[in-house]
Write a structure and sequence with these properties.
mainly beta; four-stranded mixed sheet; RNA Polymerase Alpha Subunit, Chain A, domain 2; elongated; 4 helices; eleven-stranded mixed sheet
Length: about 300
């Protein structure tokens, strides 16, 4: 066949193909759709751990527009079989489980992945609870109890060498009195950076924060109390209390009932002259005072007309 005849044949085929495509129904033309699914590792012996396993794989579905629209990607499963895995790096084929009723073809973008297999190491590590954020001004944080207090961390030996802490984060902004919260755990290295590729069992702890209603504070006047009798013919002309107010703090409902602060009784028996006392304040139960002591000066004089 001469070259000119060959070119003429190719041109004819192209024209024929174009005419064929023009007369095909649009819903019969095949299209592609990308999606990802979780990747499962199956068959790996418990004494081994895998590194470099992606959490998901990218798949390609091919079919008509109608078929792709009806296709439920959630029904597709992807896995790698590591039944015969040995320590070291190896290539493993991605296996797909596609429902038989699906009218599309499904393939993996990367049908083979490289995975590092190592000996599995296991540790028991205490859980550290880290509170972050701040409570509403109406509450105060008094620590927390949680269970379990120790968890099992396992994974490839090279990654487990880095694990130094297991942490749960408690966001105080979301905490409420008498609340209980399930918090995720994460493994950290000695610099408190996350360590990937290890497993924690259990994956969560249950935390019960201790949250109190925040105390309120107000200034209360100090009120003098005395006991005993002055010497005959004498009386208290005046007195000064320094300071004359104390800052009282306590639960809101308790503070609402406080009208003042009393001194301990000062014994004035037989007094004939001015005298200064250092005296404690009487703190009602559940109320803290600042200061707790005051100075009282009594001005003593003769009763008028004697």
């Amino acid at each position: 066949m001469r070259r000119s005849e060959a070119w003429l044949l190719i041109a004819s085929l192209l024209v024929a193909l174009g005419l064929y495509l023009q007369v095909q129904p649009g819903d019969k033309i095949e299209r592609e759709r990308e999606f990802s699914v979780p990747l499962q590792v199956v068959g790996l012996e418990p004494k081994f751990a895998a590194r470099g396993v992606p959490s998901s794989v990218l798949l390609l579905a091919t079919g008509t527009e109608e078929e792709l629209r009806a296709f439920d990607t959630r029904q597709v499963e992807a896995s790698v079989s590591m039944t015969r895995a040995e320590p070291g790096e190896g290539e493993y084929a991605v296996r797909l489980n596609v429902p038989s009723r699906a009218n599309v073809r499904v393939t993996a973008r990367d049908p083979v992945i490289r995975i590092q297999v190592e000996e599995r190491t296991v540790k028991r590590i205490d859980v550290e609870l880290e509170p972050v954020g701040s409570l509403s001004p109406l509450y105060s944080y008094g620590g927390a109890s949680f269970q379990p207090m120790q968890v099992t961390v396992s994974g490839p030996a090279s990654m487990m060498e880095q694990v130094a802490h297991v942490r749960a984060i408690l966001n105080l902004e979301d905490a409420q009195p008498k609340g209980a919260y399930a918090l995720d755990l994460e493994a950290l290295d000695s610099s408190r950076r996350p360590v990937a590729g290890v497993s924690i069992e259990p994956k969560q702890i249950t935390v019960s924060p201790v949250i109190f209603t925040a105390p309120t504070s107000r200034n209360l006047f100090v009120q003098l109390r005395t006991k005993g009798q002055l010497a005959f013919g004498f009386e208290v002309k005046s007195y000064t209390i320094t300071p004359n107010m104390a800052l009282a703090s306590g639960e809101p409902d308790l503070m609402a009932r406080q009208s003042g602060v009393l001194t301990e009784p000062i014994d004035v028996s037989g007094l004939k002259a001015d005298k200064t006392f250092e005296v404690n304040l009487v703190s009602p139960e559940g109320v803290s005072l600042s200061p707790e002591r005051v100075r009282v000066t009594l001005i003593i004089g003769r009763v008028s007309g004697t």
